[in-house]
Design brief:
Elements: E1 2-7, H1 13-24, E2 28-30, H2 31-41, H3 44-54, H4 61-72, E3 81-84, H5 90-98, E4 105-110, H6 113-122, E5 123-126, E6 132-134, E7 153-154, H7 161-175, H8 177-184, E8 188-192, H9 197-207
Parallel strand pairs: 1-3, 1-4, 2-3, 4-8
Antiparallel strand pairs: 5-6, 5-7
Bound molecules: adenosine-5'-diphosphate.
Length: 213
């Protein structure tokens, strides 16, 4: 199963990717998480990416394409994977096509702008493993502590209202055209982001014809 999750920042791609990869036993490739880890480790890629991310801009396509090529070549990806946060531009989608990858489906998680702004202010991520939470909708079992690894939960620097607005603008101009790109290829499955993460997971599995999972 090769799956792409599309959706505005805050639509719940990361949360759903984490749930789906456990259910389907395939890895999730999240470019956002890979970039944040690179920044934390101070690698050359991280240094290059940091200013773009902090400004709410996209990291250049060639950097992303390099990261994804390398990641998809690893053994754990041979049985399929979920892409979270990539492709984010037509150029990235074309690079995946050129690499000869045949996706089974592209799930677009739909959400209103108002809801995005509300959710982003409550979003917290694990500093250590990248898992995402929301103080209202998806709280951890213990406040401030990651359920998965016990790491510290922090607010992302690019989740401030001004940066979120910039990211939404970038989403509309750069990423939204991918909805049509994949619709034309017959791969698009649109799903409404629900109030709870379980309802959203259920809607995605239904859209994929995998309700029993
Ligand atoms: P969100 O969870 O809000 O969708 P991500 O964690 O996926 O955000 O990404 C955070 C930031 O990392 C983006 O705003 C962007 O700067 C950078 N980034 C992540 N993936 C990509 C990509 N595929 N292309 C360009 N930039 C990316």
């Amino acid at each position: 199963m090769k799956l792409i999750l599309l959706g505005a920042p805050g639509a719940g791609k990361g949360t759903q990717a984490e749930i789906l990869c456990k259910k389907l036993s395939i890895p999730t490739i999240s470019t956002g998480n890979i970039l944040r880890a690179a920044i934390k480790e101070g690698t050359p890629t991280g240094l290059k990416a940091k200013s773009f991310i902090d400004a709410g801009a996209l990291v250049p396509d060639e950097v992303i394409i390099g990261i994804v090529d390398e990641r998809l070549a690893r053994d754990d990806c041979q049985g399929g994977y979920i892409l979270d946060g990539v492709p984010r531009t037509i150029a990235q989608a074309e690079a995946l096509e050129k690499a000869g990858i045949a996706f089974d489906a592209v799930v677009s998680i739909e959400i209103s702008e108002e809801e995005i702004l509300r959710r982003m202010s409550g979003r917290r991520v694990c500093e250590a493993c990248g898992s995402s939470y929301n103080v209202e909708a998806v709280p951890p079992r213990v406040e401030g502590v990651c359920d998965n690894c016990g790491g510290k939960l922090i607010q992302r620097k690019d989740d401030t209202p001004e940066t979120v607005r910039e990211r939404l603008k970038v989403y509309h101009t750069e990423t939204e055209p991918l909805v049509d790109f994949y619709r034309r290829r017959g791969l698009l499955r649109s799903v409404q982001s629900a109030d709870t993460k379980d309802e959203t997971t259920w809607a995605i599995l239904k859209a994929l014809g995998m309700e029993g999972k």
